[in-house]
Design brief:
Blueprint (H helix, E strand, L loop, with lengths): L1 H4 L1 H7 L8 H23 L8 H36 L6 H40 L7 H26 L5 H19 L2
Helix pairs in contact: 3-4, 3-5, 3-6, 4-5, 5-6, 5-7, 6-7
């Protein structure tokens, strides 16, 4: 199962791969951030002068779920891009083929926008957990927690960049506005962090 989760990550690292891009890499960054926040929470367990263990155990549990969600999300992002490529390759000789192709492109672009948006939300959740943990944690892991914040922000911003670029390929204005509203809210939360 873990090998399957790492497949998109390995594609991101492949210097000859031209299809697995920033959305996938951003989700992987978020997954790494989640793993680091969870590690710092575990390293804070049982330390004198800190919160009770259940505080850290809860953060650890949530970050483990988010890390897996984002690894899976990196694969979903990679597959969404493949669907966009496949839709553009559909035949367009007849009016019926053109209509089918147009609909396939629209649906693929919506999915290719929805996936990084969901990954961005998960990165935002990681950033929230990192900030909660920052109030009281094992100081020996301070650099790990700082790295987690940088990775979570990079993941969030990268996912949002992918949402923004994919919006131009969506024709349904109602769908575009819905995505833009969520994107603007997430961008605003970064500024307040």
């Amino acid at each position: 199962m873990m090998n399957e989760r790492l497949s998109a990550f390995l594609k991101v690292l492949d210097p000859t791969d031209n299809a697995t891009g920033g959305g996938t890499a951003s989700a992987v960054a978020g997954a790494m951030a989640a793993a680091l926040v969870g590690m710092v929470a575990r390293l804070s367990l049982g330390k004198k002068g800190l919160h009770p263990d259940d505080f850290y155990s809860k953060i650890d549990s949530e970050t483990q779920k988010l890390s897996i969600q984002l690894l899976d999300g990196s694969n979903t992002d990679s597959k969404a891009f493949e669907q966009v490529q496949a839709a553009f390759k559909l035949p367009k000789e007849t009016d019926e083929q053109k209509a089918k192709r147009k609909n396939a492109i629209e649906q693929a672009m919506i999915q290719a926008t929805r996936v990084p948006l969901e990954n961005a939300k998960a990165c935002r959740a990681i950033l929230d957990l990192q900030q909660e943990l920052e109030k009281s944690f094992n100081a020996n892991a301070a650099s790990d927690l700082e790295c987690a914040a940088h990775l979570a922000k990079a993941g969030l911003l990268g996912c949002l960049a992918n949402v923004a670029i994919n919006l131009s390929g969506i024709k349904n204005e109602k769908v575009v506005q819905s995505f833009k509203k969520e994107t603007e809210w997430l961008r605003a939360t970064i500024q307040s962090s």
